[in-house]
Amino acid sequence: MEITLQVNGVRRPVDVDPRVSLLDLLRERLGLTGSKKGCDHGQCGACTVLIDGRRVLACLALAVAQEGAEITTVEGLASGERLHPLQAAFIEHDAFQCGYCTPGQLCSAVGMLAEGGPSAVTEELAGEPELTAEEIRERMSGNLCRCGAYPNIVTAIAEVGA
Fold first, then answer.
1. Which residues 6+ apart lie within 8 Å of 127 measured at CB?
2. In this protein, which residues make up the domain named 2Fe-2S ferredoxin-type (predicted)?
């Protein structure tokens, strides 16, 4: 199938098999290798990208279903040489060790900060909940870090979220 994707602000026409995941298309056809293939089952979050500003596991999304959507990968977070505030905070707070999960963590954090609203751990449901460490951990729970850099990830997100 011939489709056109809008990836990181660039229109990309591609001929794609209807069974191909968005992750495989991004990595293998478009050369955007920032999103990682961790589990390929939607359980680790290493492949997280933003589709129309919402967090999506690219390994579970079919590429053909994304026609007309705005897809943002970790490569599209920065503005030229200027890092996204979360990228800068991850560096400042050493929020990664091996770095494999970092692209998914970053995309998920960008989406999470834009979402707002209550989570499973929010005590007061009225108004916008305070972005506590517990709130961040709950909202980022779909992104796993095998190295255990969670304390620094939470600190980086909290700094930007404030």
1. none
2. 1-77
Hey, what domains does the chain have and what are their CATH numbers?
A: 2-76 (3.10.20.30), 85-161 (1.10.150.120)
Is residue 50 within 8 Å of residue 107, measured between CB atoms? yes
Helix (H) or strand (E) holding 57: strand 54-57
pLDDT exceeds 80 at position 127: no
pTM here is: 0.93
DSSP state of 55: E
* Residue found by looking up tokens 């980086």 in the block: 156
69-85 confidence digits (pLDDT tens): 999 999 999 999 999 99
Q: Are 66 and 21 in contact (CB under 8 A)?
A: no
Does residue 116 contact residue 94 with C-beta atoms inside 8 Å? no
Neighbouring residues of 126: CB distance < 8 A, sequence distance ≥ 6: none
